[in-house]
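ingest -> validate -> predict -> emit
validate: passed (alphabet ok, no gaps, 145 aa)
predict: started
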Amino acid sequence: MNPFLQAAIDEAEQGLAEGGIPIGSVLVHKGVIVGRGHNRRVQRGSTVLHAEMDAPENAGRRSAAFYHECTLYKTLSPCAMCSGAVLLYGIPRLIIGEHETFMGEEALLSERGVQIEVLHDQHCIALMNSFISNRPQLWNEDIGT
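emit:
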């Protein structure tokens, strides 16, 4: 298993253990994790604190040049808001655990030059399927359906 995806999965599982939505992300710069995060909407009563927002936030203030050298690993395909953050900061590469349970804005990101790799990770798929089955109301609230 890719160690960076595993770190994102660990974040997702931490979010689930906290009563939140099991989506995790890590920001990697030159082979080093610089920011970890998970969806904390429930835990923090936030409207926007998705994993892809949490990981860069936890990396601290960085220059545009720094983000241009990063890869974002995440357990699930990014929603429109999180895709916007990837574009805003110029993160050039996105590694996604799965997009079976939710297909986000991958086409938009690809059109804008972001390199995307989907790993079709069975653990990520099972984690989201279980969550969606057990907590459909929370899932629908988070993803806006």
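Residues 3-17 form the longest helix (15 residues).
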